[in-house]
Amino acid sequence: MISIENQIVLVTGASSGIGAACAKIFAKGGAKLILAARRVSKLDRLANELADTKLIASASDIHLVELDVRDRPAVESAITGLPETWQNIDILINNAGLSRGLDKLHEGNFQDWEEMIDTNVKGLLYVTRAIVPAMVSRGRGHVVNIGSIAGRQAYPKGSVYCASKAAVRAISDGLKQDLLGTPVRVTEIEPGLVETEFSNVRFHGDAEKAQNVYRGLTPLTADDVADVVYFCATRSPHVNISEVLLVPTDQATATLVHRNEF
Ligand code: NDP
Ligand code: 8X3
């Protein structure tokens, strides 16, 4: 196991769910955090919480970046404009992502499609393209991409989200091949059902529909996923965990779940 102490870790989508849980576990390990998302007020709150719970010495030990990963010029200037002491990113956690809608493909909403593809695929590519060159030239780095079980198995009404996560799988696989011969590691984490803001976002704020996704089963928590990310990041430098599929015990495939009905 290697130490995370003083490693610079950039987490996209750190304002909620899995990204926020990654921030917490890496802070606990002594990392220096760059937290990025659009809702900077939530990042502020998280930084204060980490300081209040003594996971970091003070909120100013975290660098916050207001960032929409869909905006390529903004991604490039956010990375090139990092203060010098924050530039040597050791670990990139490409977590920002979302689903929008649950519709048959032939009835799908174009805006939902654009948002998923622009965020989950193009945004991840922009951030990776901005950060990995310096990892290669410094001879150190680790890219962790948050994919999904949906990238392995499509499900009804989910084809565009599933396609975006299949792209994350292909990008992770291809990046690992492109980085062969460098010490830079690539990991893709593929969770099943995790209870976060994810379903609320998918159903455009319909809380009842969102809760129904997890009805009668015990989903993964964001901390469960962050634990696995942390495990992968702390293996010896010669060990590359390329892919991890983790699901709740109550889930077997993307569509086959066990629910206790009351
Ligand atoms: P949340 O909705 O809780 O968190 C999503 C995060 O992504 C938020 O911090 C949000 O921040 C950020 N985000 C969304 N769009 C953008 C954008 N354009 N630019 C920057 N940040 C953005 O969901 P999860 O924590 O569950 O999702 C995290 C990742 O995990 C996603 O990639 C998701 O696809 C994946 N995943 C989730 C599963 C689940 O069941 N929950 C299962 C498998 C994978 P903000 O809105 O402030 O910008
Ligand atoms: C999120 C998991 O099954 O809701 O990627 O698509 S699922």
CATH architecture level-2 label: 3-Layer(aba) Sandwich
CATH topology: Rossmann fold
Which class best fits the helix and strand makeup? alpha/beta
The oligomerization state is single chain
Q: Please tell me the total number of domains.
A: 1
Rg of Cα set: 18 Å
Beta percentage is 5-15%
CATH level-four homologous superfamily name: NAD(P)-binding Rossmann-like Domain
Instruction: Report the end-to-end length measured between terminal Cα atoms.
Output: 44 Å
Mean pLDDT: 97
Which word captures the global form? globular
Largest sheet: 7 strands, parallel
> How are the strands of the largest sheet arranged?
3-2-1-4-5-6-7
Number of β-strand runs: 7
CATH class: Alpha Beta
Tell me which ligands are bound.
NADPH dihydro-nicotinamide-adenine-dinucleotide phosphate, 2-hydroxyethylsulfonic acid
Q: Give the % helix.
A: 40-55%
Number of helices: 8
Low-confidence residue ranges: none
Query: N-to-C SSE series?
Result: EHEHEHEHEHEHHHE
Q: Can you describe this structure?
A:
- The protein is α/β, with parallel strands linked by helices.
- The chain has a single domain (8-246), classed as NAD(P)-binding Rossmann-like Domain (Rossmann fold).
- It is built from 8 helices and 7 strands, in the order βαβαβαβαβαβαααβ.
- The chain has helices spanning 17-28, 40-52, 72-80, 110-138, 159-178, 198-202, 207-213, 222-233; strands at 8-12, 32-37, 63-66, 91-94, 142-146, 185-191, 243-246.
- The N and C termini lie far apart (44 Å).
- The model has no long low-confidence stretch (mean pLDDT 97).
- 2-hydroxyethylsulfonic acid binds at residues 148-150, 158, 193, 254.
